Amino acid sequence: MEDAFGRIVAIIASVFVLFFLPMIIVTQKMDNTAQAYIDNAVVEFVDNARATGIVSAASYEKLCRSIDSIQSNCTVEIRHSSRLAVSDGGDVEIQYYDYFKDDILSKI
Q1: Gap between the Cα atoms of 59 and 41, Å rounded
Q2: How many degrees, rounded to 5, is the angle at CA 34 between CA 102 and CA 18?
Q3: Which residue(s) pair with 95 in the sheet?
Q4: Cys bridge to 63: 31, 33, 45, 103, which one at CB 3.0-4.6 A?
């Protein structure tokens, strides 16, 4: 009886190792590949914005299309932060301004 139980456990373990483990590994590799593609698309968008000094509607749409081609459930968040020093005679106050996606897209 103990031998039959051991065989059943060995069969279940071998099915897991032969079928499910390779599927899990392939899924993880596909996720890593998709993340690398998205990272490259974002880096290209940021580099283009830095080089030209503007965010154009065409480059934003290109970024969204390239991300949607890989994962359609992603959202693109854009934020621009700037620091401004304001002087009231003798005191200097540092103010931070944040512009988010809606503000940026309305200016494009």
Answers
A1: 11
A2: 145
A3: 84
A4: 45
The full length of the chain comes to 108
- Side chain identity at 8, as an amino acid letter? I
Residue 87 CB burial class (10 angstroms; 0-12, 13-18, ≥19) = exposed
pTM assigned to the model: 0.66
Give the pair of three-digit tokens for residue 103: 């503000």
Q: Is 58 left (phi over 0), alpha (psi -120 to 50) or beta?
A: alpha
Residue 45: what pLDDT?
A: 92
In order, the DSSP letters of 8-33 are HHHHHHHHIIIIIHHHHHHHHHHHHH
pLDDT in tens, 13-36: 898 888 888 898 998 999 999 999
Take residue 108 and report the two structure tokens written for it.
């494009």
Q: Domain limits of the chain?
A: 2-76, 78-108
